[in-house]
């Protein structure tokens, strides 16, 4: 694993950085990763992508049955997996997650803080309970994971943290009623920027991915389903994102080829935020 100083002197474009071609620099062999909310949807796709690129992957979810199922899928492909039940809004669960990974693999190189929830109601009707629940998972949970993983990574002098934010951190998708969700995801972007600049000189990069509207169980909830048809007409690409549209981004942010990138928000939304 490389530290922040590159020390590149050769003609690296021709020879490859330290003799490694771009595809070799995108491999994750021997790295240890975890993905929260990996029992389904985007997190499951991230777990498969990191594993296919060579990483050992801890599959973390509040639902242990889903986590076990995804680990079995990884094992079928020859990927080492570890199922961990954790509620990321609880600091004791987050610490237990890190301890379990350390005792099995002895390091945390890649922290993919993806778990999130979405509740929607008109802003004037948003209850404090709804606001607190959304923030406890989306922002507090992401902070707890960043801090616990970050402490290990700072000791290692190396780490890649990838948070899942949302296009809703940048624009207000219309028509929708997601005050607490949008605000919590804007917080994830600012958390990422702050940590990304604070920790880069100690070898820890922090970036986030902001998906547009992705075809997962999250958007097929009773309250969001009626909006899907309307959203489709707002997407220049003409379709919803599939989870596979996001997989290369997580591998890129996890690998050595993105070492000079920190604090940024990679937006993948079929052009929707530009229209
Ligand atoms: P999903 O609802 O399909 O899956 C979320 C997973 O997280 C589930 O397996 C669930 O059990 C788990 N989870 C929920 N609360 C948890 C907690 N407290 N601790 C641990 N695990 C928990 O969601 P998704 O669509 O795959 O979304 C994943 C992430 O991407 C979320 O942060 C979401 O906000 C974000 N996102 C989704 C979309 C979209 O359109 N689907 C768009 C932008 C951003």
Core attributes:
about 280 residues, 9 helices, binds nicotinamide-adenine-dinucleotide
Layout of secondary structure:
Elements: H1 12-15, H2 22-25, E1 32-36, H3 41-52, E2 56-61, H4 64-76, E3 81-85, H5 91-105, E4 110-113, H6 128-156, E5 159-164, H7 179-199, E6 204-211, H8 225-232, H9 247-254, E7 265-268
Parallel strand pairs: 1-2, 1-4, 2-3, 4-5, 5-6, 6-7
Helix pairs in contact: 3-9, 5-6, 6-7
This protein binds nicotinamide-adenine-dinucleotide.
N to C succession of SSEs:
HHEHEHEHEHEHEHHE
Proportion of beta-strand residues: 5-15%
Output the structural class: alpha/beta
Low-pLDDT sequence parts: none
Overview of the molecule:
The structure is a single chain. With 275 residues, this protein is an alpha/beta fold. 41% of the residues lie in helices and 14% in strands. It has helices spanning 12-15, 22-25, 41-52, 64-76, 91-105, 128-156, 179-199, 225-232, 247-254; strands at residues 32-36, 56-61, 81-85, 110-113, 159-164, 204-211, 265-268. The chain has a 7-stranded parallel beta sheet with strand order 3-2-1-4-5-6-7, with helices on both faces. Strand 4 (110-113), helix 6 and strand 5 form a beta-alpha-beta unit. Helix 3 crosses helix 9. The model has no long low-confidence stretch (mean pLDDT 94). Residues 36-37, 39-43, 61-63, 66, 86-89, 114-118, 137, 141, 164, 166, 211, 213-214, 216-219 line the site of nicotinamide-adenine-dinucleotide. GO terms for molecular function: D-arabinitol 2-dehydrogenase activity; O-methyltransferase activity. Belongs to the class I-like SAM-binding methyltransferase superfamily. Cation-dependent O-methyltransferase family. Belongs to the short-chain dehydrogenases/reductases (SDR) family. It comes from Mugilogobius chulae (yellowstripe goby).
